[in-house]
Specification:
The protein is built from 8 helices and 4 strands. It starts with a strand and ends with a helix. By secondary structure, the chain is an alpha+beta fold. The protein has helices at 12-16, 20-30, 44-50, 60-67, 82-90, 103-107, 122-132, 146-149; strands at 5-10, 33-40, 72-78, 116-118. The chain has a 4-stranded antiparallel sheet. Helices cover 40% and strands 16% of the residues. The chain has a single domain, classed as Alpha-Beta Plaits, CATH 3.30.70. The longest helix is centred in the N-terminal third of the chain and has 11 residues, at 20-30. It binds guanosine-5'-diphosphate and magnesium ion. Guanosine-5'-diphosphate (GDP) binds at residues 54, 59, 62-63, 93, 111-112, 114, 117, 120. It is an enzyme of class 2 (transferase).
Length: 151
């Protein structure tokens, strides 16, 4: 079985709005395994690396300012196809284009307040996990329910 990992960050808007619990619950209920979690106010250097692909775009400064404006809940989640499925659970980048039932579709309205980040590929997940977490912060553990989630 593939033990793919993704990086999720509950953004400052969702932390302020009390949405950490509901977002984590969706991933737990789906069957994914939480490997790492921390509250962190990311500094500019971390955010510039995290959003490197958007450097120079008109929204970059606003995005970095917003993401560093308060605590972010950074997480590593593991499971089969978790990168693609995690993005599907998040919904479209613009919450107004996100279907109801998705995280952004249920909790967001504005593009610049879209609640939660999720890695967009296996390669970017590896890059982001390595950027946000030390190896010692990532927990390796077994779950007794594994056989009830995967055949
Ligand atoms: P994501 O991977 O779905 O988060 O989307 P992107 O990687 O394209 O963009 C990163 C983040 O930048 C998004 O989640 C939005 O919060 C923000 N963003 C993207 N495009 C725009 C834009 O055109 N205007 C503004 N204000 N923010 C944007
Ligand atoms: Mg992205």
């Amino acid at each position: 079985m593939s033990q793919e990992q993704t990086f999720l960050a509950i953004k400052p808007d969702a932390v302020q709005r009390g949405l950490i619990g509901p977002i984590i619950t969706r991933f737990e209920r789906r069957g994914y395994k939480l490997r790492a979690i921390k509250l962190i106010v990311p500094d500019r250097s971390l955010l510039e690396k995290h959003y490197d692909e958007h450097k120079g775009k008109p929204f970059f400064e606003k995005l970095v300012g917003f993401m560093g404006s308060g605590p972010v809940c950074a997480m590593v989640w593991e499971g089969k196809d978790v990168v693609k499925t995690g993005r599907a659970m998040l919904g479209a980048t613009n919450p107004l284009n996100s279907a109801p039932g998705t995280i952004r579709g249920d909790y967001g309205i504005d593009l610049g307040r879209n609640v939660c980040h999720g890695s967009d590929s296996v390669d970017s997940a590896k890059y982001e996990i390595n950027l946000w977490f030390q190896p010692t912060e990532i927990q390796q553990y077994d779950r007794a329910i594994e056989g009830w989630i995967y055949e």
